[in-house]
Specification:
Structural class of chain A: alpha+beta
Shape of chain A: elongated
Strand content of chain A: 15-25%
Distance between the termini of chain B: 41 Å
Structural class of chain B: mainly alpha
Helix content of chain A: 40-55%
Strand order of the largest sheet of chain B: 1-4
Radius of gyration of chain B: 21 Å
Largest interface: A-B, 29 and 35 residues
Distance between the termini of chain A: 71 Å
Oligomer: heterodimer
Number of strands of chain A: 5
Order of helices and strands of chain A: HEEEEEHH
Number of domains of chain A: 1
Helix content of chain B: 55-70%
Strand order of the largest sheet of chain A: 1-2-3-4-5
Chain lengths: 183, 236
């Protein structure tokens, strides 16, 4: 192949890539704010689901080395407990979840904000279906010794999604331990 | 080019999933509720149509040696645009389909059509090819979703239809669908990937059976016509 032919190929590919990148930049600029706002609103909605607070939440300092999966701990200004946000690995990718913990170190509810679990299997844990709600309701009232029923605990795993169920259960235990460390 | 023939090819005789048998991975993975099926089908339809138009418009300036690289760039561009728009405007669908929207980049329907059709045909023909092939894909997804949802959880139109407060369509994926029999009586295996394989297998089998039958009929009719002509000749 002649040199100028290679240069021509590279030039065509470069122009097409540059045009594509430019278009993507424009679309990103148009949608970025909306996507960001929605993710933020979703997080606050999730806080209210797991631990209701009429006067808002405030961030609490915690020992980050001890709890690598915990992103943030928020204390309810009503004094009824804490909300822990954590990111941990599920079966397919990272799961971001918030977990409410009351002052007696019992879970008050969980809500999964972001995940990439398999649709119809692990994704049920985050779904708004009756099966998803039943799965999440099991965590309410559990303490730090929480475990799946096959390990002698009280949480029934989702059918076909043992890894997701184990990960979520473990994250709830970690969240309770993290609150214990700042309580 | 004959639009009627193109439509028939997209929907039946050259259906992307049932006859060309491409793009099956996502087909099996996401066909669990009607909401997913319609959303995925329409996303692919839009991306396929856009890519077809761009690829056929550029077909004269795309060098043979790097055509695949250029196809991939164009496809990835459109997939990212659709992905961002879905995240911003239909977040429920984006959450339900998850990784399968970005994975349309490697869905062979789109690169297959670009390679097999658009680089040899005009922009107009490619545009209609995108719409018809996309429709063929969407229809197969809808059939699979309806079947799997009904057998698996006794429901119709999950996520898309809400009958809690009168009949209405929802775009946020919260609709419970119409419960035809209690969910606990459903074969939940149909909701698992296994059910996807089973449904797809049955559909492909049925399709091939019908196509063969049709071909046979056509041959028989041809033969009968020939015999008739022969008879006439003898009589004369």
């Amino acid at each position: 192949m002649k040199d100028n032919k290679i240069l021509k190929l590279a030039f065509v590919l470069f122009v097409i890539c540059a045009v594509t990148a430019g278009v993507l930049g424009i679309v990103n600029a148009l949608t970025y704010q909306r996507i960001y706002d929605m993710a933020h609103a979703k997080e606050f909605e999730a806080y209210a689901v797991v631990l209701k607070s009429d006067s808002g939440y405030a961030e609490v300092e915690f020992e980050e080395e001890g709890f690598p999966t915990v992103d943030s701990i928020m204390i309810s200004n009503d004094g009824n407990g804490y909300v822990v946000k954590s990111t941990f690995s599920g079966a397919q990718g990272n799961i971001t979840m918030v977990c409410g913990v009351d002052n007696d170190l019992k879970c008050t509810g969980i809500s999964i904000i972001e995940h990439s679990e398999t649709s119809g299997l692990g994704a049920v844990a985050a779904a708004s279906s009756s099966a998803g709600e039943a799965f999440r309701a099991q965590f309410i009232g559990q303490d730090g010794s929480i475990a799946l029923s096959k390990n002698g605990g009280a949480i029934d795993a989702l059918a076909g999604a043992t890894i997701t169920s184990t990960a979520v259960t473990g994250a709830v235990a970690t969240s309770i331990a993290a609150v214990d460390s700042v309580n | 080019m004959n639009r009627r023939k193109q439509l028939r090819e997209g929907l039946v005789t050259n259906n992307p999933v049932l006859v060309q048998q491409i793009g099956m991975c996502a087909t099996m993975a996401i066909t669990t509720t009607l909401f997913n099926g319609v959303g995925m089908g329409l996303s692919v339809l839009i991306i396929l149509t856009c890519c077809n138009v761009v690829v056929s418009a550029l077909r004269k300036i795309i060098p043979e040696e790097i055509r695949l690289a250029i196809f991939v760039v164009v496809i990835a561009g459109f997939v990212t645009i659709v992905d961002l728009l879905l995240q911003a405007y239909i977040p429920a669908l984006s959450a339900a389909l998850g990784v399968f929207i970005p994975l349309i980049v490697v869905n062979c329907i789109i690169i297959g059509r670009a390679e097999a059709f658009c680089q040899k045909n005009t922009v107009k023909d490619s545009f209609f090819d995108g719409i018809f092939q996309g429709l063929g894909y969407t229809i197969v997804l809808i059939i699979m979703c309806v079947f799997r949802e009904f057998v698996g959880s006794g429901r119709f139109g999950g996520g898309l239809i809400d009958i809690a407060n009168g009949f209405r369509f929802t775009m946020d994926g919260t609709g419970g669908g119409i419960q035809i029999f209690p969910e606990s009586y459903g074969m939940s295996i149909m909701n698992l990937p296994f059910g996807g394989f089973l449904t797809l297998g049955l559909l492909i089998g049925l399709m091939q059976y019908e196509l063969k039958k049709f071909e046979k009929k056509k041959k028989m009719a041809e033969r009968a016509a020939k015999e008739l002509a022969l008879q006439k000749e003898v009589e004369e």
